[in-house]
Please model this.
Amino acid sequence: MKKATFIEGTGIALISSIAVAVLFTTMSPLFFGGELFRLLVAGLSFFYILYLFLRSKDRTGRVTVMSVWFVVTLFSLVFVSSLLLYIVIQLLMIWLMRSLYFYNSIFSVLIDLSLTGFSLLIAIWSWSVSGSLFLTFWCFFLVQALFVFIPKNFIEKRKAEYIIQAEDDRFESAYHTAEIAVSKLINSK
Model:
């Protein structure tokens, strides 16, 4: 599997932003604005999760994750009246998927959660300043593209370095003790 890159993420941001702007503009006469927006968010969430699956090395649990996403999305489409809460639920599903398939450290997962929250804040700010769906989704997915810079094993690398240093220290200590013992044997004759 090819690893996700920031450049690829910016491409996803551009394609997603254009798709949302075009689809919302062309289909808005057929739907109520809120319903269409929810469907577009669900569709983008679905395709983004598929993209993440393509970039993940792990193969297990994909059917389960997609089934959970489908049930949660259907449930939230029917029962969640707040648009912001609906968007947060979709973002949590994306975050959960990335947490399961891209990270091995709780700190990496928490950093990704912070990145997800920050991307939502940037999207809300962009909407309030510009009123443009294109810019809103562009800013959101551009910040989301930064997830590739979060290390997979945030703490485990440092732990491994500590273990290697401790092993080196033990070796040095044992070597030094052996040198002292050999010098005492040589000097005692």
